[in-house]
Design brief:
about 250 residues; mainly alpha; two-stranded antiparallel sheet; elongated
Length: about 250
């Protein structure tokens, strides 16, 4: 591969990574309408989900309809619809006579969620390793580079978004983007724990090292090594649960 072609592929890879992050930031489209336009309820649901998963709204926090209607500038009906959907996702709890609250994190559900994610993503990374091309490797390297930039800037939000983009890129390159959707749906409780670990000194560097290890195995077209690196990467959260629960007992059930 000549230098011009290599530079072109790296630029394309960077653009793809940025597009993944931009789509992650945008509200999901099509919920509740045949025309593809987001309803007010779906917009509230998406925004509340992001805030809950980012731990911007802590587990156990009260969600007051009147305050939410004022915040979003809409009537109570779409707010109530959004809260019902979030309840179905396990992110909100409703207690009659008491109120509506952000659900606490079910500690016993985390190992199963990690297992599901490992099963799905080890399969996709094995596929990617089997078909690895310089372009695929360049796309993954570019996402990690952007993640490293976010780390250098101390931007945990962008770091997390490029973390998501890395794993989605693997599924897309494997030819099974729907697998990422399944993994994404299974990991909502994991995400809240992950966001709690990011501020820990050395954590973001460790994530980058683990991503590099995965890509190195893909570059060598070593499927078993890629799977092992992915399984180790996704399993690092489990030993943290004891400490997280000890330091934030009110966040867990």
């Amino acid at each position: 591969m000549d230098e011009t072609r290599a530079m072109s592929e790296m630029a394309s890879a960077r653009d793809a990574a940025v597009d993944l992050v931009r789509r992650e930031r945008r509200p999901m489209r099509g919920a509740g309408t045949s025309s593809g336009r987001s309803t007010a309820a779906s917009l509230v649901q998406d925004e509340m989900r992001r805030a809950i998963l980012a731990m911007q709204i802590a587990p156990g926090a009260a969600l007051v309809e009147k305050e939410l209607t004022a915040r979003f500038g809409i009537s109570r009906t779409p707010v109530r619809e959004a809260l019902i959907k979030l309840k179905e996702e396990g992110l909100v709890e409703v207690f009659p006579q008491a109120g509506t609250f952000v659900a606490r994190i079910p500690i016993e559900a985390i190992p199963e969620a990690v297992f599901i994610r490992q099963a799905l993503e080890c399969a996709t990374v094995d596929l990617v390793a089997g078909i690895a091309t310089p372009e695929i490797v360049a796309r993954l390297d570019a996402v990690i580079a952007r993640q490293h930039e976010a780390f250098d800037e101390g931007d945990q939000e962008r770091f997390h978004l490029f973390d998501e983009a890395f794993h989605e890129t693997i599924a897309v390159c494997a030819g099974y983007p729907g697998i990422w959707k399944l993994a994404h749906a299974a990991k909502s409780q994991i995400d809240r724990c992950r966001r709690m670990t990011l501020p820990v000194p050395g954590r973001m560097e460790m994530v980058i090292r683990e991503h590099l290890s995965i890509v190195d195995a893909v570059r060598r077209k070593d499927g078993p090594a890629a799977q092992a690196a992915m399984r180790k990467h996704l399993g690092t959260l489990l030993p943290d649960l004891v400490h997280l629960r000890a330091t934030h007992p009110d966040y867990f059930v």
